[in-house]
Amino acid sequence: MAGLNVSIAFFLSVVAISEVMRQVSKRLLPLGVYRGLVRELLRMLMEIGPWGGGFGPDVILTLLFIIYLIHGVSFDGASANPTVSLQEFLVMDSSFVATAFKLLVQFVGMEAAGILTTHYWSWELTDFHLIQNLMALDCSSSIHTSLYHGIFVEGVCSFFFHLVALKFQHSHPLYRAPVLAVTVTTLAYTAGPFTGAFFNPTLASMVTFHCSGNILQEYVQVYWLGPLTGMLAALLLYQGNIPRIFQKNLLYSPKSKYRTPKGKAVSGLKQTGDNGEGQPQLRTKPRS
C-alpha cells in the first residue's frame, strides 16, 4: 500500500508541476511559442506519468482515464502524439514548419520524461523501484502477439481514437474530454495484452523500443506504421478526402445548399414562351 501511495504521489506531482509550468509559460511566452512548443513538451511529461510510476494494470487504466480527462479540459489542444500532429497537418490546420516543431518537441519531451523517470526510480523509494531499476537493464517487449497482428491492433486502436476525436472535435471540452477518456481507456483495456495499446509512436518509443524481444524494424512497423495507417483510414472515412494530398471527395458527394423543386407546377401559372433572356415567361391564368 505504501508503494502505491508513493507512486500516486509521483503521478500527482508530475501533473501539478506540469500544470504550473503550463500556466507560467502561457503568461510569459509569446502565444505562438506556447502553442507550438511548450504545451506539447509539458503534455509529454504528463503522458509518461502513469508508466513512470510503475503501476499495475488496474491503476494504470484508472489513471489513464483521469489523465486524459485532465488533458482534455486544461491543455489547450496539445496532443503529445505525432499522429494527431500529422493529422492536423493533413487537414491543413497546421503548417509544415509548425508540425515539424511539434514533432521535435514531442521527442524532446519524451527524452526529458525518460530522464525524470530514471532519476525517480534511482531513489528506490519502494521495493518495486529497486526491481524496476534491475529490469530496466533488460526489459522485455510489449508485443505479445505476431508482428502483423500487432500492426493490426495498433492500427485499429488509432483508427477508433482518431475517428472519435474527429467526431467530437468541435464539441465543448466538458463533453469531448470524457468521451475521449473513455475511448482511450476502453482501447487500452481491450488491446493492452497484445501490444500495450499505445497508439502513440512517441510514447511507445520511450517505453518499449529499447527492450529486447523485437528488433527496431518490428517496433517501427507496429508502433509507427500501425497508428499512422489507422489515422489515415479514420480521416478518409470521416471526410472522404485528405486535403493536403487531394481535394476530391472519394466517399461523399457534396451537398447543395439549394433544393431542386419536385412535383407538379404551381397552380394558376402557365408558361407562355421565352422572355428574351433565355428564361421561360409565366402568365397568371385569369379567374373565371
TrEMBL record:
<feature type="region of interest" description="Disordered">
    <location>
        <begin position="257"/>
        <end position="288"/>
    </location>
</feature>
<keyword id="KW-0813">Transport</keyword>
<dbReference type="GO" id="GO:0016020">
    <property type="term" value="C:membrane"/>
</dbReference>
<keyword id="KW-0677">Repeat</keyword>
<feature type="transmembrane region" description="Helical">
    <location>
        <begin position="103"/>
        <end position="123"/>
    </location>
</feature>
<feature type="transmembrane region" description="Helical">
    <location>
        <begin position="219"/>
        <end position="238"/>
    </location>
</feature>
<keyword id="KW-1133">Transmembrane helix</keyword>
<dbReference type="InterPro" id="IPR051883">
    <property type="entry name" value="AQP11/12_channel"/>
</dbReference>
<dbReference type="Pfam" id="PF00230">
    <property type="entry name" value="MIP"/>
</dbReference>
<dbReference type="InterPro" id="IPR023265">
    <property type="entry name" value="Aquaporin_12"/>
</dbReference>
<dbReference type="GO" id="GO:0005737">
    <property type="term" value="C:cytoplasm"/>
</dbReference>
<keyword id="KW-0812">Transmembrane</keyword>
<dbReference type="InterPro" id="IPR016697">
    <property type="entry name" value="Aquaporin_11/12"/>
</dbReference>
<dbReference type="InterPro" id="IPR000425">
    <property type="entry name" value="MIP"/>
</dbReference>
<protein>
    <recommendedName>
        <fullName>Aquaporin</fullName>
    </recommendedName>
</protein>
<dbReference type="GO" id="GO:0015267">
    <property type="term" value="F:channel activity"/>
</dbReference>
<keyword id="KW-0472">Membrane</keyword>
<feature type="transmembrane region" description="Helical">
    <location>
        <begin position="143"/>
        <end position="165"/>
    </location>
</feature>
<dbReference type="InterPro" id="IPR023271">
    <property type="entry name" value="Aquaporin-like"/>
</dbReference>
<comment type="similarity">
    <text>Belongs to the MIP/aquaporin (TC 1.A.8) family. AQP11/AQP12 subfamily.</text>
</comment>
<feature type="transmembrane region" description="Helical">
    <location>
        <begin position="48"/>
        <end position="70"/>
    </location>
</feature>
<feature type="transmembrane region" description="Helical">
    <location>
        <begin position="177"/>
        <end position="199"/>
    </location>
</feature>
